[in-house]
Amino acid sequence: MKKVFIIIACIFFVCLIVISCRNGDDKPAQEEDVQVDKVLLSLPDAVNAPQSGSEGSRFLISTLVTEATVFEGVEEIFNPVRERYNPLASTVIDTINSSLTAIDEKIFLNTTVMNNLNKDGLVTLTYDNETSKARVTKNGDIYTVELWTSLSGTWLKYLHVSFSRDGDRYSGTITGREQELDSTYRKEYEIKFDTEDPLLGHTIELRTINIDYDDPEIDTSWENENIPTKMWLSASTDNTTFSIAANVYYTQVDIASHTRFYEYLMAILNDDEAFIPGTTQVNAHFIYRGAIDVAEDRGAIELALVPETNTDTTEVFSVYSIGEIYREAVADWVQDNGGANRNVINTINNALEEIGSGLTVSPTSSTEEIFDALKAIQDYLEEQDKSIRLLDGVLFVVQLGNPGYFDDKSGFVGNNELRRPAWADEVPGFGDLEVLSAADVAGSGFTVTMPNDEEPDF
After folding, report:
1. In this predicted structure, what is the pLDDT of residue 337?
2. Which residue of 160, 261, 342, 369 lies most exposed, with the fewest beta carbons within 10 A?
3. Whole-model pTM?
4. Which has more confidence, 423 or 341?
5. DSSP state of 426
6. DSSP code, position 428
């Protein structure tokens, strides 16, 4: 991330100058005990552990021969959920939490401010050498906090918090933006929350746009790859299970570039259109869902890689699961006889004959037939500790299947085909979690709108 969304909010009201409201005799503050710094959810360590320097990774796949190196290849596919995708959301959540803590300290736990708010329903504030303003309103059980900052003489509203309170239950919406006048690339976000949803428990729904720049005039070179631009995330917990579903939209996608099936995979992501390395720009989505055992901080994630125009949400984790699209790419590579190499089918058949499998492949073999053959070869090579160079970087796909299992210590620990953990059967169910489609998130309708977006009138 190039900037922190909210800076001033973290030092909110430190230099308070004026409290402007209707005058009257002070009365004791009502028993409001309003406090908003707990309305958001933090993501569990099992699926949230940002790694320094990982952003912009090319998703490299190393030479894969032994079980350990096969695991490394599969791990490089799943671990970005924990190291890159979810940290995009947690950065927003952490920044907002800092703002909410400051709001609690300077408003809801401030006796003078609350006396005036409870009496008049309105408090306006000017601070920081008259370069920052705030307005707080109360209408029944509905509270609204609005913050502005002055940038080069222009007022920018950068935070709007509106919520209702019913006993211990808080529900509402937080809308924020980076303190940047250029709206084209200004990061903006919205979080809806409910601390006591009757069905799901504590819930949040995040949408954020302009996470990173994707201006074609800025990012035309292939040094600027895999740019996250939008994100939708829904999370909930009943204090036993933490459930999560998300869609991260990437532009200028370039993955698995060191594998033999690279161009075939990229063609799938390009809506099955031809892909020319260094020329064709591909945009795609990493869509995932899962559940974490809160007490053990471990669980499972299903991951899909989806072309940007896809509208499906019901079969996305089967048709476009990472394992499935990699399998299809490898099958396309084999059916094309390895592209320019023109010897991959012979290599596979020679290996199958050497191990006495009785299997063969041809340009008309199905994906299933091709992977039956590759699995037989992989099993043999692992037993013999051997390698076939032409198949290095391909065989790991045999064991690339959903779901991936995660814990708080190691991140990805295995899946059902590779190093399946003993606790896999104890993972909470998550098969009915809904996601937003690729087309929904990529489309122009996925926006963030600041409420009452105007300059302060006080």
Report:
1. 83
2. 342
3. 0.89
4. 423
5. G
6. P
